[in-house]
Amino acid sequence: MMLEKFYTDDAYILDEHGNKSGPYKTRFGSGKTLTFLDEMLEIVVDTGYQIIRPLDDGSEMVFNVIAYDFQEKINRIPPQHILKIENAYEPHVETEPVRKNVDDFNVFQAEDNKVINIPDSLIELIERINASDCTLEEKEEAKSVIKKLLENPTVSAILKDAASGLLLLLD
Questions:
Q1: Rounded to whole angstroms, how far apart are CA atoms 4 and 82?
Q2: CA pair distance 76, 66, nearest whole angstrom
Q3: Per residue in 130-139, pLDDT tens?
Q4: What are the start-end ranges of the E strands in the chain?
Q5: 107, β-bridge pairs
Q6: Is 105 helix (H, G, I), strand (E, B) or coil?
Q7: In degrees, to the nearest 5, what angle opens at C-alpha 150 toward C-alphas 6 and 84?
Q8: Neighbouring C-alpha atoms within 13 Å toward the C-beta of 27
Q9: In what order do the strands lie in the sheet containing 98-100?
Q10: Which of 17, 27, 100, 128 has the smallest CB count inside 10 Å?
Q11: How far apart are CA 171 and CA 169, in angstroms?
């Protein structure tokens, strides 16, 4: 299955009774969401469970599951368990959700002062589409959606020169 190659991190699940299962393959990123493909996850996860991420140095990071959702199969995307998580040792604190960085129209500053560079993110998305094992037709369809987004007058006005540069990558 084509999505499995993106699931490169191990995660263990600790239920409310302290029973540990796994490892399961997932992908930890900077976000607050973890996804497990349906056939990979043999148990039902609930809020109050914990996710344990082993680190290379032998230590572990622990996350609390604060929400759970299940997404049915959509076209070729298999069913997925979607967990909203937070660091168990740094509980969630309400922050201003997203602030526009007025100095650079291509950068957004999100909560926890994380910076998201839109053009860089789109370049990575295009590279992942090109590297995927999808058919040529599926790759072209995915890139046409990005192209349509970048050709939108509002998006183009916000991203300015970056939009035209990104469009060149799609041709």
A1: 15
A2: 28
A3: 888 888 898 8
A4: 9-14, 20-26, 33-37, 50-54, 60-71, 80-87, 98-100, 107-110, 115-117
A5: 117
A6: coil
A7: 40
A8: 12
A9: 98-100, 107-110, 115-117
A10: 17
A11: 6
**Is 116 within 8 Å of 106 (Cβ atoms)?**
no
Contact yes or no for 33/48 (Cβ under 8 A): no
Is the pTM value of this prediction over 0.70? no
How many angstroms separate the CA atoms of 96 and 106, rounded?
Answer: 19
State the helix-helix crossing angle for 118-131 and 161-170, rounded to 10 degrees: 0
Domains by residue range for the chain, with CATH:
2-87 (2.40.10.10), 98-170 (no CATH)
pLDDT (tens digit, 0 to 9) for every residue of the chain, 171 residues total? 455 667 788 889 998 898 998 888 887 776 688 887 756 666 778 888 998 999 888 889 899 998 888 777 776 667 778 888 888 887 555 555 554 444 445 555 555 556 667 777 787 888 888 888 888 898 888 888 888 888 888 777 777 666 666 776 676
Helices 118-131 and 136-151 pack at an angle, to 10 degrees, of: 160
Question: Within a 10 A sphere around the Cβ of 150, how many other Cβ atoms?
Answer: 20
